[in-house]
Design goal:
Two copies of one chain form a homodimer. Chain A has about 650 residues and is mainly beta. Chain A contains nine helices and 45 strands. The relative contact order of chain A is 0.10.
Chain lengths: ~650, ~650
């Protein structure tokens, strides 16, 4: 039967009472057909209480009316809810030649209203007319919920609030979106009517809804395995407040939208419904242009000097440095690779969330150790499918950009993948599960780059972003063999070809020193670098197109790679030839840059000088830090060996245009 | 001793170790004087760890320096917090002719930061530089807390969350403002140092602060009688979240601002402090231009017909009607007088709050019966000082107005008081305690009117506000004897002087009917009305000045009063001569107006016609309701007998200009 439709039930008695529910403000059809006694030729209709009858011809009335033609149906409308059970009466007296049959509809008017914070001001609205229509943008509307993956109570086993079927302490309530079943009126309904809360197909298993918020831990009303629940009518004498937590981010198997319906059922069939649409908040990454909060480094056997040097720069940036203990890092120093610290946000609440990579190395337990109130955890990808490209040195995000008129006000995610130039058998992928998760977040539309030409295979080996006093607010920084060759050629031309780089440093137990002349004479090195330069140029084209950059937005820092065949043995890939300056840590205006050990002229390292001349005019301060033994020799640099938790964007993600 | 100052403690040994705390980012003076050994002529200063020494000449260094002139003091600065106890070292080796005395300062650097939501976005900031400076306006800043007077758990005894020394269920946390002691770093400090949280003098007894929010009910850390508390250092290894509730609104004995300090104490003396300033949210009234949510009426012996008539209008306005049961009203029908339903608000949270009048009549228990989640309660004034003017028919609020360039975006409160024209012995006052409470809320700067000329003494007997499609958005409606006499004189001049008013109605057992001619011939009535008209005119002048109104903003509705000497027997005051139409209920565009029973010409009441002609052009719908027996004969009308809970303003109070 259609919604909001009642049938006047045929009865052989001459006095019939039928108890029903009317929803306030909702015209409800009453089908008379089946109850009209044979030979009836007159209908006396009368009402009591706040109720209006509408006849098929549009006539509206309250009180009494006598109809000589009996309509097949009438429509009823009550605008206010009942104070007592059945306090709205509609009497239908059918007259035939020899008798009268009198039906009395005893109606209880109830209000059905499910409310959420559709206008995104942090307060639950009062029947917002746009609550069913989720729209992006600063003028948009639609409620939002968060995945509740933090740990508001300190569990020893690393369990998050997601696993728990209760509300975990007072602070946990802040992580939940409120739903209110607005006072429906009288606390009793006629038999046969029930009120149910139902989660749409798309949301099943994706949300948990708690009731009993006047207690200390709530009670799970809806959750995985039970996607609808009866609401006790008695509870709706007052506004009934419920709280909803997300269990899953938007992903390839979940479009992020969940509809919740409040349904009046009559004899087990839907009779009336109100509903709301909510969207799960995305996981968001933070670019280098956001100020840092904490820098993490792992305490390992030989890196204490590097940590102390970084601590000086961290101090100058107004940030703090946290050391990850040996017990938590198990000798794994590559903090950049293990996790990406982002956040998720709903109106008036925010949670930092670590995305853990599927690399499964020594730091495996570190991301979960960060769990706490408003610090959550998520992971994607599988250990079986992992390659080096799944480490998060291969996952970055640009500052906010505008591309062909489209504003990405939270920037765009960048990750490295393989390319056709790599022989199929040697190709390594950024796991599709990770890629799809990132794409599904929508607001930082990911851009795929080519990083498989590098042995380690991470995009942070050839790019970074620094803040800049330009209209765009940043510059893209790329590693450039071409610029390095130019610099060395100029030095050679000026008679400095005998100057050495990597002086005083060792590799594999031998001196690493090498003269400019030797470098320039090495044709194999040149050929490799020419090839690598092409790959960087290929990425530059993608970056320029996808981030809307022009030549002036890009800085090239001198760098050399060397080709080597490692591990898989199949093709030559790139390793850094000297400490890779583009693998820097950007902390506000303070830059911690791997010390390149370039050729010294008048006690000035010519590689450092080249970098300073490009970055210092942007009001950036360059701190060159020796990471040779602790990081470079282990095929990484300062950026690889650190992780920066940054502040969130001040502008919320829901103000993004429709993705 | 000054803050952030240490003394190098004299010691006769040649090797001295002194353990101290440094606050990150805070230059700290070390006074050397007392420790300089006699005859010392050299100082070797050296540092370890992330710390900088500043000499009196401004020289800054880290590492080692040899000074031939010994300064009286030095300054130390650490920017990052310690990872271990005493991990920053400053060694001072004083040399004399024959010996060296070596002091080692073992310093533990800690971060001291107390955070609040100073930018009012619902999220606690990260060391907002403006957190100490509370400023009004849309560009202002400063944290806000609310008086937590609702009832998130259903107590049978009407107790609110204010009385309770714990957090009352999950929803109660929403009513509290969060404070965060940001991670201070290492979880241990040298002996002699402590961390304390202290409430400023002005805030003592005005706030309660809870800790242990990772539990289900928190623990009172600070409250009445204990205005400071020690923070366990161990707790500050992570951000320590605290929650603050207000216990008192701003009032004559409380300026509303509370400073909370986080103090490092050294041997019981303040050594360093960070602090924040918060303001208690005001109690706010809602004018007739805000949409209604619920209309309350009392079920009493003879008013069911009136209730049903009002219910029809309530339904048309999309609102609900709630009846107050006889058990809760004890025969007292004057809902307008018993309470005023307003609200209080902080960023991303809001609570409706009933202000109860000190009238102490049958409805006494009703306001507290409204208590619930986000529905609070407050009262002011005393039973001993009460007069009829303390009933809230005498308390209204204008729609938003701009007066001489000053924007009152939440309108202005209006209340009636006495005037010099009333003999001193007969004067009745609006209680100063009530008036001062209302003034102290600041954002709806109250305007005092003159209502003591009325027997009942309420401003709602001569004024109301209706929405209007004008730039101001409303019109002021005044009762006008002058307009009524004009109308009656015109009718008399047209030959209708014999028409009666109040026909079919009784007063004191007699017919109340009276002809226009009789009314106009009654010189005493005319004299009284001339006097009352003057009082209304006097109020009109005040209203025009204080609300910035011009003649076109005001509508005069016909009304007659009659003078009577009631109760106190001293002077003649005004009572309504027929049902007072200005005492209407305004529900959006629907007006429920007392039926005046004016002279009928061609079946049209000429008083109703006069009112329709003024209000209907404003797109308002007039519903005239017979309240003669149930209200008018008991010296009140529809407005006196109802109470309307309205929606809150969409614009928050803190965007008001500095009051």
């Amino acid at each position: 039967m259609s919604l909001n439709t009642l049938i006047l039930e045929p009865n052989s008695n001459s006095q019939v009472r039928q108890e029903e529910v009317l929803v306030t403000g909702q015209p409800t059809t009453v089908i008379l057909n089946e109850a009209i006694p044979r030979g009836a030729n007159r209908l006396i209709l009368s009402t009591e209480g706040e109720i209006v009858v509408q006849l098929p011809d549009g006539t509206e009335f309250a009180g009494e009316i006598i109809l000589e033609t009996i309509p097949e149906q009438i429509s009823l409308l009550a605008r206010t809810y009942s104070v007592n059970l059945g306090d709205r009466l509609v009497t239908l007296e059918f007259g035939t030649e020899n008798r009268a049959v009198r039906y009395t509809l005893e109606l209880t008017a109830v209000r059905i209203c499910l409310d959420v914070d559709a206008n995104r001001d942090g307060l639950v609205d009062d029947d917002n007319p746009r609550k069913k229509d989720w729209q992006w943008g600063s003028e948009g509307q639609g409620a939002i919920f968060m995945v509740n993956s933090d740990q508001d109570i300190d569990y020893s086993d690393g369990e998050t609030n997601l696993q728990n079927r209760q509300i975990d302490g007072l602070l946990d309530l802040k992580d939940l979106a409120l739903l209110i079943v607005r006072k429906t009126g009288f606390g009793d309904w006629p038999r046969g009517y029930e009120l149910r809360l139902v989660v749409s197909e798309s949301g099943r298993g994706r949300v948990r809804i708690f009731e009993n918020l006047d207690t200390y831990s709530g009670r799970e009303l809806i959750g995985p395995g039970h996607n609808e629940a009866r609401i006790r009518i008695w509870d709706t004498r007052q506004d009934l407040v419920l709280a909803l937590e997300g269990l899953h981010y938007r992903d390839r198997d979940f479009d992020g939208l969940v509809d919740i319906s409040l349904i009046v059922e009559r004899d087990g069939e839907p009779y009336h419904l109100d509903w709301v649409r909510l969207r799960v908040a995305p996981w968001i990454m933070t670019p280098n242009t956001l100020l840092p909060r904490v820098v993490y480094m792992a305490q390992t056997e030989n890196n204490q000097t590097t940590i102390e040097a970084v601590r000086q720069v961290v101090g100058r940036s107004g940030t703090q440095l946290e050391e990850v203990s040996p017990e938590l890092n198990l000798g794994d120093r590559w903090l950049q690779d293990e996790l990406e610290i982002g956040y998720t946000q709903m109106p008036a609440h925010l949670q930092y969330v670590a995305l853990e990579s599927p690399r499964y190395r020594g730091l495996e337990d570190f991301p979960e150790s960060l769990l706490g109130a408003d610090f959550g955890y998520v992971t994607r990808g599988s250990i079986d499918a992992r390659t080096r490209l799944d480490s998060f040195g291969n996952l970055e995000v640009s500052p906010p950009v505008t591309v062909n008129g489209r504003n990405y006000h939270l920037g765009r995610i960048l990750y490295g993948d393989t390319d056709e130039v790599i022989p199929p058998a040697a190709r390594r992928r950024f796991q599709p599960a990770l890629r799809d998760f990132l794409r599904a977040q929508q607001v930082q539309a990911p851009v795929q780059l080519f990083s498989d030409w590098l042995n380690v295979g991470h995009i942070d080996e050839f790019l970074t972003f620094v803040p800049a006093p330009t209209p765009k607010g940043f510059k893209l920084v790329l590693a450039s063999p071409r610029v390095c060759y130019q610099l060395f050629q100029e030095l050679q031309a000026q008679g400095w070809g005998a100057l050495g780089l990597r002086e005083g440093k060792t590799l594999s137990g031998h001196s690493a020193a090498i003269a400019i002349n030797e470098v320039l004479a090495d044709e194999k090195l040149k050929a490799s670098n020419d090839r690598f330069q092409q790959f960087i140029a290929q990425n530059r084209v993608i970056l320029s197109r996808e981030l809307g950059l022009v030549a002036d937005d890009i800085i090239d820092l001198p760098m050399l790679f060397e080709g080597s065949i490692r591990r898989d043995g199949s093709i030559e890939r790139a390793d850094s030839f000297f400490p890779n300056m583009v693998n820097m840590i950007v902390l506000g205006s303070q830059l911690a840059i791997p010390k390149p050990f370039g050729p010294q002229l008048n006690d000035v390292c010519q590689l450092e000088a080249a970098v300073r001349s490009q970055l210092e005019p942007l009001s950036l301060t360059c701190h060159f830090i020796d990471d040779w033994d602790a990081y470079f020799r282990k095929f990484g640099e300062l950026h690889c060996g650190t992780n920066v938790a940054r502040q969130h964007f001040s502008r919320p993600w829901w103000e993004s245009p429709q993705p």
